[in-house]
Amino acid sequence: MQTVYWLVLFVALLIVEIITMGLTTIWFAGGALAAFLAGFIGFGLAVQVIVFLVVSVLLLVLTRPIAVRYFNQERQKTNAERLIGEKALVLEDIDTLKAVGRVSVGGQEWSAKTDEPDGKIGRDTIVEVEGIQGVKLIVSKKED
Known about the structure:
With 144 residues, this protein is of the alpha+beta class. It has three helices and six strands, in the order H-H-H-E-E-E-E-E-E. The chain has a five-stranded mixed beta barrel with strand order 1-2-3-6-5. A hairpin with a 2-residue loop joins strand 5 and strand 6.
């Protein structure tokens, strides 16, 4: 009778995975299925728990990196993420130490700072957006 609980856990974990689509519970669903099979064969509860843990950890460690690499490749970047890699025009001299500087990218003005060694980029320079930190764009001089 206790093997039914593994089957219920398997189904519940699959439902959670389908709802979230986050690759969070699928590994444990595989472990629950393996534990169910171990119980169905006739192994005791201790063996079933060990099978659940071992299979879950193995699936997590061995297959998750592969699945994450190929999962949601078609995901569209949203909002500010789209700016990363874009060219921008410096509207106001950027001085990271003084926390000043503005750039225009995609028709929008943003506060900006840089990781350049001297922390400065002059006005009218074309820069590339490297990242976003809070409400500031991290930019670097565009290499020609």
